[in-house]
Amino acid sequence: MEYVITFKNTNFAIKAEQILLADRLRVTVMPLPSQIKAGCGICLRINPEQIGSALKILKSNHIGETVIYLKRVDNNRTSFQEIVDSAILM
Amino acid sequence: MIYFDNSATTIAKPPEVAEAVLYAINNFGNASRSFYDAALLANREIFKTRAEISELVGLDEPLNVAFTCSATESLNLVIAGLIKKGDSVITTVTEHNSVLRPLYLAGCDLDFIDCDDEGVLRLDEIEKLIKPSTRFLVCTHGSNVTGNITDVKRIYEICKSHNITMILDISQTFGLIDVTFDMADILCFTGHKGLFGPQGTGGIIVNGSFDFDIVKTGGAGVKSFERFQQKEMPDIFEAGTHNSHGIYGLQKGVQFIKKIGTGAIHLKERKLAERFYTGIKNLKGITLYGDFSGYDRLPVISVNLEGMTSADLATSLWENYEIATRAGSHCAPLLHKRFNTVDMGMVRFSFSYFNTYEEIDICICALKNIAGY
To answer: What is the mean pLDDT of chain B?
Structure first.
């Protein structure tokens, strides 16, 4: 299980990556999964232990218009569930 | 060669600039287009260059920096994106064609701030030029002809008090002296002059948000199914593949500027220019153009020698002394009319941090010889 964060464009994705890496969070850039509709072709994935810290850091750096998804793999099938209220993760 | 055409482009650059370009050519993928290492490397270094440049002007938002191929492209995009036919716009008689021609193309109504016999703008006249319909003021920070630096902070204060958006051409000043956002709303810069970056780099820096019309569009790596380009910075000005190789080189140039400091750079260049000015100002038949009453000048000195055209003088300097200068008109037509040098032009000497006092002295001797001493 891991979380995926999408952004409104590539510039914000790279800015977010740089900010989170500077705070020693382990984030990885990945292509946008085809199940997710977003403007930007890349997104960040992060483990559940660090998603709360990551969201707080992104908020304090005014990285807006992010969408958070929970990635699950059940019976070899990958699904992405949108976290509508991401505040519960912080 | 003694190179004194640094206002056109700097040739002597910190070695890390060329090293970076070579590295980028061999290692960068296409930024914003994918997620593998080579593409992300380009993406991250472009972002880092935005951060370095925004920091240089005191902004904390790297995404307020958009890259273009030159200051001319920057001015074209900003002017076409904001200024419409019939808008009232103030500019000056000292402008380069990179400001004037986009304004003419926009079809706006222009009012010009005049200058005195030394090319110093008459800033007292600005208030009289402002009409209720005036929405924009576009001007240059430092003249590529006279080396005069304009008090743009004063102009910006006037603009703010009249709700006028100020667009500043910093082609000749960025990297040489401090440029900050108490000087204008929008800055248009080049990378290959005072910033020591490669040719083909430049950009737009904004302070705040502006309602730019889309004037350039195409692939951007985002929102591929929408008909038009995104309207926000920096995407609105960055359709197509970035010049990531050049931008990475520019990053190293900017880092060099920060390491040395614009104060130290300006001091060195000022001393070079003062030594040259002192050595030639009393030559028989010489005419110097500009305000030399103070120290706050760019390292640019334009001259004519009586009895010679500027082309003849520049040719003599090159063919007999291997001194590279620029002759003719300098893309500032209104200023040449003001100085009555439309036909003869001027010879411009422009110095850089990497020039030496020895080179200055050789050039002074050369001019003395040519002048018949």
So the answer is: 95
- Rounded CA gap, B373 and B368, in Å? 5
B43-to-A27, A41, B170, B245, B293 alpha-carbon distances in Å: 16, 13, 26, 11, 47
Cβ separation of A31 and B34 shorter than 8 Å? yes
B59 token code pair:
């902004």
Q: How far apart are CA A66 and CA A31, in angstroms?
A: 15
Question: Which residues are CB-neighbours of B248 under 8 A, at least 6 positions away?
Answer: B20, B21, B23, B24, B28, B42, B45, B46, B49
Model pTM score = 0.93
**What's the number of domains chain A is made of?**
1
pLDDT tens across B139-189, in order? Answer: 999 999 999 999 999 999 999 999 999 999 999 999 999 999 999 999 999
**CATH number of the domain bearing residue A35:** 3.30.70.1530
CB B332 within 8 A of CB B244: no
Range of the domain at A42: 2-89
Provide the ipTM.
0.84
- Domains of chain B listed by start with CATH number: 2-9+261-370 (3.90.1150.10), 15-260 (3.40.640.10)
Give contacts of B35 with chain A, Cβ < 8 Å. Answer: 29-31, 41-42
A18–B contact, CB cutoff 8 A? yes
DSSP state of A80: E
Q: Where are the beta strands (DSSP E) in chain A?
A: 2-6, 27-31, 42-46, 67-74, 77-82
Rounded distance, CA B328 to CA A61, Å?
51
